[in-house]
Amino acid sequence: MAAYAHISKLAQSHPATELRIVLIGGRLNGSLSGKSSAGNIILGQNVFDTSRRTAQSEARQKEVFGRRVIVVDTPGWWWIWPKEETPKLDQIEIQNSVHLCPPGPHVFLLVIPILRSFTEKDLNALVEIMKPLTERVWRHCMVVFTWGHWLSDLPVENYIVREGKELQELLEKCGNRYHVLNPNRYSDAVQVKELFQKIINMVKQNKGCFTAESEQKKEWSRREQELVERMM
């Protein structure tokens, strides 16, 4: 925890005084994505229970590097299940997660565990889960690779190339934004500071956070414009 205090003075001068983060991820045969663990690493404290499955969305907050950081953990779904077989309550909890950090999250962290391969089924399931939040949600998404210690000394870029087109397609949808969290470096503030800087850069590019109402209005406006153009 001393490392957090050591770096906090550098972050206090930054104009972004609050970061709102939603964690999204699935699970497979008892292999957890590491969402709750990622939330604990980000907040620098064990605020999410990692001994059980997250059954409903829950928010925790803490001051980190002089900023108020709100992290929302959401229920994981089975990667191998199509959306229609994912429990309706889990789908609703994920959609409602945006309301637990008003006016909306700065970023959706899509949690991908390095200890398993990312397949076409995984990609399709994730795209379907995110669909109710509109296509514009991807502008606010970043991939976070958990269980980073499995990489050993291998650069994450090598892992991305090795995994193939499904993972690369997901990264493209997220603007090629990604980060690695290593649970063996739990108290290493640098990996969290670097993540925050990537989020802040994304927020600047997007000129704000994701809000469901505004994004839906933009989507309807886009569709209306397309309809007008087709009619013309």
From TrEMBL:
<dbReference type="GO" id="GO:0005525">
    <property type="term" value="F:GTP binding"/>
</dbReference>
<comment type="similarity">
    <text>Belongs to the TRAFAC class TrmE-Era-EngA-EngB-Septin-like GTPase superfamily. AIG1/Toc34/Toc159-like paraseptin GTPase family. IAN subfamily.</text>
</comment>
<dbReference type="InterPro" id="IPR027417">
    <property type="entry name" value="P-loop_NTPase"/>
</dbReference>
<keyword id="KW-0342">GTP-binding</keyword>
<dbReference type="InterPro" id="IPR006703">
    <property type="entry name" value="G_AIG1"/>
</dbReference>
<dbReference type="Pfam" id="PF04548">
    <property type="entry name" value="AIG1"/>
</dbReference>
<feature type="domain" description="AIG1-type G">
    <location>
        <begin position="20"/>
        <end position="219"/>
    </location>
</feature>
<protein>
    <recommendedName>
        <fullName>AIG1-type G domain-containing protein</fullName>
    </recommendedName>
</protein>
<dbReference type="InterPro" id="IPR045058">
    <property type="entry name" value="GIMA/IAN/Toc"/>
</dbReference>
<keyword id="KW-0547">Nucleotide-binding</keyword>
